[in-house]
Each structure stands twice: as structure tokens, then as C-alpha cells.
Amino acid sequence: MADGVRWLDDAERAAWTGYRQMKRALDARVASELTADSGLSEPDYDVLSLLNDSAAPRWCIKDLGTRLLWSPSRTSHHLARMASRGLIDRFPCETDARGTDISLTATGRRAIETAAPAHVESVRRHFIDQLTPTDLADLARITSKVTAHLRSLGQQ
């Protein structure tokens, strides 16, 4: 520690690299199956499931981007592509003249309702079913702790 850096020890490095490898492999597998099964990308699914699960019929694009941790540019471009495919509608915001709201179209609702069963099965097969109930409880506790820390820093 002469250089002032708190380098990772073997156990910390194993946990960190294991997490990173698992995340990349799991994300790639689940995303690949989602696209093969439904034609939706992970970002499409994220937007559609958020809109479908929301009690609000419309979402402000800025709020959606914040919720998904996307930049304004990424949010705008991705939603424009989704709108061109008929998955969402865009409307002028009722409370901000410069803002835009989005809502789920009937096509978007059908797409998420069709995709969800196979996607949930993929998540179950590649993640949930690989863990014990104790593992799941530990993971929920760990992710809550790290997420609370990041939120305290102003990240979502």
C-alpha cells in the first residue's frame, strides 16, 4: 500500500472478476434468447416492460431515461426507433412545452406480452434456477446494499 492504492486481495479480485464475467455472459445469453424468441432487443424489452408495468399511461422521456440510466441522446434515439416500429407513441408533454411523453401502443403491448413468458423462462433457466433460496436472499441483500450506496451518490 505504499502507493496509496487499496489493491484488491485474492478473494476480492475473485469476487469482482467473477461478477463481471457472470454479468457479461448472462446478459449476452439472455439478450440473445430474447432477440431470437421475440425480435426485441434488451433495451426494447426494458422500455416496453416499464411502460406495461406502470400505472401511468404516459411517461416523460426524460424520466424514462433517468430510470433506465440512459443518456438523453441514447433515450431519444432508441425511442425514435421504437416509435418507427409502432411499439410506442410520442406526444408533446402536457407539463413541459419542451418535453415529450411516450406511451405503449397496442403493438407494443402485444410485443411485451408475447416476449415476456420466454424471457422469464430464460432468466429462470440461466439465473434463478442456478441459485438456492439462500443464494437469492444473499444476492437481494447485496444488490440492495450496493444500489443504496450508488443512489446516495446521486446515481439511480
Automatic annotation (TrEMBL):
Protein name: Transcriptional regulator, MarR family
GO annotation, biological process: response to stress
PROSITE patterns: HTH_ARSR_1 (PS00846), HTH_MARR_2 (PS50995)
Domain HTH marR-type: 12-148
Pfam families reported in the protein's UniProt record: MarR (PF01047)
The species this protein was found in: Micromonospora rhizosphaerae
Keyword list, A-Z: DNA-binding, Transcription, Transcription regulation
SUPFAM superfamilies to which the protein is assigned, alphabetical: Winged helix' DNA-binding domain (SSF46785)
GO MF, any single term: DNA-binding transcription factor activity
Keyword DNA-binding annotated: yes
Keyword field contains Repeat: no
